[in-house]
Amino acid sequence: MLKNLKEYCQNLISFSEQEIDLIDNYFEIKTLKKKEFLLQDNAVCNFIAFISGGSIRHFHVKNGDEKTCDISFENMWVTDFQSFTYDTISIMNLQAMEDTTVFLIRKPNLYKLYKECSKYETFGRIMAENVAQRATEIAMSLSSEKPEERFQNLLKKQPDLFQRIPQKYIANFLGISPESLSRIQKRIYENQKS
Q: Whole-model pTM?
């Protein structure tokens, strides 16, 4: 069951068979139904999770409104790094957008794994860098691109997004209303036709 996590790890770092099999000892499998939470705000995030199948929406609530920060898919990592690192209360929610399977490792087990095999420390650094890079890309996109540009980039990077995620969450992620998203989609479609 942990096969695709092992393949993902092997693609980043060369592990021996014995080293890669340590994953079986430290990761747990968790299945989430659509709309089920992996993490809810006001809890401490004590895990890092790898999405094996499905999708997870990252959001926080501000003045009673949900603000979508990211949507993660297969072969991506999810956590609230600030809560995880500093053992603080999370303001982030991680919610399954469809039936989802994750492999998660809890903080104490992660540190045991690092001690048992130092290659996993290198792997952990690479994983953290990937998550940080994605957060930087999103921040730059929100600060410098128009909604239509953000939409087109999202469509290029994740073409199946619109078949898998309700439009209201995509619009929320792009920082626009669902009506604005519909207008952008219509304009792009008409431009492609002409």
A: 0.89
User: With contact defined as beta carbons under 8 Å apart, do 143 and 180 qualify?
Assistant: no
Residue 29 host element (H or E): strand 28-32
Domain covering 3-144 in this structure, CATH number: 2.60.120.10
> Is 54's pLDDT higher than 80?
yes
Out of 7-11, 67-71, 90-94, 184-188, pick the least confident. 184-188
Q: Where are the domains of the chain?
A: 3-144, 145-194
Nearest to 123 by CA among 88, 83, 77, 87: 77
Confidence of residue 46 (pLDDT cuts 50, 70, 90): very high
Residues whose CB falls within 8 Å of the CB of residue 4, separated by 6 or more in sequence, listed in order: 52, 74, 75
Q: For residue 79, give the nearest of 4, 130, 138, 16 by alpha carbon.
A: 130
Distance CA 151, CA 145 (A): 10
Is pLDDT above 90 for 145? no
Tokens describing residue 72: 């993660």
Give the C-alpha separation, 64 to 44, whole Å.
Answer: 21
CA distance 69 to 146: 17
What stretches of 35-131 adopt beta strand conformation (E)?
37-39, 47-53, 56-62, 65-72, 77-78, 93-96, 100-106
